[in-house]
Amino acid sequence: MRLLADVNFNNDTLRGLLRLKPDLDYVRVQDTEIYEADDPLVLAWAAKENRVLLTHDVKTMAGFAYERVAAGLPMPGVIEVDGDLPLGQAIEHLLVIIEVSEPGELENRVVFVPLR
């Protein structure tokens, strides 16, 4: 699974994932030309690069993601991680999603962590 970590995504979570999955294919928004871009542009870039977005932005990102889907635009998926979730639990949930998801399985979906 190819991932894009939103600018607000916890870097400790990424480091923890990398310890358990050293071959993790991820890019951080702050390391791209879309650093400081608004949510719709971040989602458009994720779609162009075919990357599932990791975010803690539970207020607006899901709404913009569903707007893309409704408009018929590509949306590889969003994983929204509750920012109050303890680090170990966040890593554990993400690892399960990454390990068991088939390519394209998250397309047009927003998955919430902790899993509901």
Task: Explain what this protein looks like in three dimensions.
- The protein has four helices and five strands; from the N terminus they run βαβαβαβαβ.
- By secondary structure, the chain is an alpha/beta fold.
- The longest helix has 14 residues, at 87-100.
- The protein has a five-stranded parallel β-sheet with strand order 2-1-3-4-5, sandwiched between helices.
- The model has no long low-confidence stretch (mean pLDDT 96).
- Helix 1 (11-20) links the parallel strand 1 and strand 2.
- The chain is 38% helix and 17% strand.
List key phrases describing it.
single chain, 116 residues, alpha/beta, five-stranded parallel beta sheet, 5 strands, globular
What's the layout of helices and strands?
Layout: E1 2-5, H1 11-20, E2 25-28, H2 39-48, E3 52-55, H3 61-70, E4 78-81, H4 87-100, E5 110-113
Parallel strand pairs: 1-2, 1-3, 3-4, 4-5
Helix pairs in contact: 1-4
Biggest sheet descriptor: 5 strands, parallel
Task: State the separation between the terminal residues, measured CA to CA.
Answer: 21 Å
Q: Tell me the series of helices and strands, N- to C-terminal.
A: EHEHEHEHE
Structural class: alpha/beta
Helix content: 25-40%
Calculate Rg over CA atoms.
13 Å
Shape type: globular
Question: What's this model, at a glance?
Answer:
The chain has 116 residues and is an alpha/beta fold. The chain has helices at 11-20, 39-48, 61-70, 87-100, and strands spanning 2-5, 25-28, 52-55, 78-81, 110-113. Helices cover 38% and strands 17% of the residues.
